[in-house]
Amino acid sequence: MTAFRFSSSSLLRKILISSVRGYLGLTLRTMRWTFTVDPAARRLLTAQDGHTAIVAFWHEALPLTPALWWWAEPQNPTLRLHVLISRNKDGRLIADIVGPWRIWSIAGSSDTRGKNKGGAAAIRRMRARLRHGGIVAITPDGPRGPRRQAQQGAAALAAMVKMPIVPIGATCSGFRLKSWDRMIIPVPFGNGRFVCGAPLFHLNADGRSAEEAGQILSDAITDAMDKAEAAMHRRTVTHQAPTEEFRPEPLDLMPSRLWATVATVLAPALPFFLRWRQTSGKEVAARVREKMGFASRSRPTGALIWFHAASVGEVVSILPLVENCLCQNTRLTVLVTTGTVTAARMVEQRMADAARVIHQFVPLDVPRWGKRFLGYWQPQAAIFTESELWPNLIGLCHERNLPVALVNGRLSAASFRKWQKVPRIAKRMLERFAWIAPRALEDAQRFEKLGARTVLASGDLKTVASPLPVKKEALQSLRAQLVGRPVFLAASTHEGEEHVIRKALETLRNEIPDLLTLIVPRHPERGAEVGALFSGAPRRSLGMVPQKADAVWICDTLGELGLFYRLADVVFIGNSLPGVKGGGGGHNPFEPARLNCALATGPLVHNFEEAFQKLGNSVAVVKTATDLAQWVRQMFADPALRAHNAATSKERVSAANEHLVDRLTSRALDLLKS
């Protein structure tokens, strides 16, 4: 019987909440609102210069305030609104009604019996929200009155955080309840008025007592109410602040409803797609359900920050940031998600000793799967990497009031043109980021043109990564076996490039007969294919090592580039030659540069354009097999030039973005506080 009463009560409460929210949403949306806003108040209410304020209105106007939020939030979607609402049952009911509109509540200090429960905690939360760019709304005469008489807490809070109070007056077509506050209940298709008065600074200055400060605040809010009511009756405005008409609508939390609908419709077929990828080795059988939002690990207690990196390159870029965050916050857990199997292995290899790092595969961009993922892990902040822009996941984060940032933000010219074709979706998505840290100046400019609001100074995280790791025993053993042989490495090659490399080696064979060429395909699963191209060359993945008669060694393993870069003095960086499948774009040149390698690349390096610009003429550009053979010949014929080029590259990498990781770490940890 007890259980039945509980579930019935819960059901009735849900029905009541839905009914009230539905009615309130209908009335506020169908009203024609007129806003009269002091210019200084507008800047604070929309955080135009990064500063916010405390918003104060009488308890009677509480049902109307969602319209104020719907006016302010579209002007700055990164805003966060928190309302101080009583801890009693009525207050919790109000909090649940407005919660889906992203109006977040801070439980006040009084319950139904007027006892103080959690007042100090509420003040701490309000201080934290205000100091991190949020708005806090209060009803100084609530929750029990006396009506239109400000209590001392509001002015004390303003003094404590050194922020102004914006007095708000609001009224509309409707009727009033016979309650202590004579609460306004709006009716559909009417008219309404908001008056946002001049901000009140330093209420407690000049030796004013708490009573005097409270009276000044009371007079300001009542004046705003009087002006709103007078303007409502006369349908005119009698003061000088700018006036505008507005039809309110809650901010659409999902950047693209069409994208969300298509993803939802396709969702039943996507598990079959994942199983198909599993047959080709692109998914881990035991972990396929992670891509549907199901967790395979337990969530630890405490703060958790979520980093998402799609593939190996993105993992490499965030590793220094992840490690620094864990070092500076010893109670933090980091959830790292990736999209590919190779990236997952990279996380496991490079962060195997980090007990506070959890890896999961990121769910596909299906709203229901994203909700399942976020509901389980409940991160306090989300940090995406490079060009990982998923509208549904970003919208779901915004819906949960979860701050989102983008590090090493990359937007190629081709991606920029694609997003320009859907500018509204791009703007809605990018303006939800708390901040974007672009990789390069060109990326920053493209993000800003698409609608990003807070774009930080550019800097490439890949310039500050630690040297790639290596197993010392393997390095010593291979060096002993290869002693005396010149070693050339073709790193991270893609389909279409190995043919060019083979032609270059045919030219070099007679000139440098003992040359050993290491070929590391970007995707290790291509090892057999590449080995066949080089007449069955030995493969590292099969445990084979090159003999004296072998001219080529296929290094088709994952996570061993640090080993191969240390074995070779001369390195060609793949995914860059004309004819490469996929159009090229280059790979990270900083990794071999840190390890004293002389470098060459093809001309197609648009994904790492700024990185190659930093290295300048220390990196050779080759376009054909003849060019490549000539460069390799020159490097082995002139050891002094080879050493000079390698030293120049290493020096230029060391000088780049010295304080970038510390700067981004501070920004990332601040997200947890917001």
TrEMBL record:
Active site annotation, chain numbering: 314 (proton acceptor)
Enzyme class: transferase
Keywords: Transferase
GO molecular function: Kdo transferase activity
DUF374 domain location: 77-147
Domain 3-deoxy-D-manno-octulosonic-acid transferase N-terminal: 287-463
Reaction(s) the record says it catalyses: lipid IVA (E. coli) + CMP-3-deoxy-beta-D-manno-octulosonate = alpha-Kdo-(2->6)-lipid IVA (E. coli) + CMP + H(+)
Marked site (Transition state stabilizer) residue numbers: 386, 462
Gene Ontology CC entries for this record: plasma membrane
InterPro entries attached to this UniProt entry: DUF374, Glycos_transf_N, Glycos_transf_N_sf, Kdotransferase
Domain of life the protein comes from: Bacteria
EC number(s) on file: 2.4.99.12
Keyword flag Transferase: yes
SUPFAM superfamilies (alphabetical): UDP-Glycosyltransferase/glycogen phosphorylase
Family annotation (Gene3D superfamilies): 3-Deoxy-D-manno-octulosonic-acid transferase, N-terminal domain, Glycogen Phosphorylase B
GO biological process, alphabetically ordered: lipid A biosynthetic process; lipopolysaccharide core region biosynthetic process
Function according to Swiss-Prot or TrEMBL: Involved in lipopolysaccharide (LPS) biosynthesis. Catalyzes the transfer of 3-deoxy-D-manno-octulosonate (Kdo) residue(s) from CMP-Kdo to lipid IV(A), the tetraacyldisaccharide-1,4'-bisphosphate precursor of lipid A.
Protein's UniProt name: 3-deoxy-D-manno-octulosonic acid transferase
Organism of origin: Acetobacter senegalensis
Gene expressing this chain: kdtA
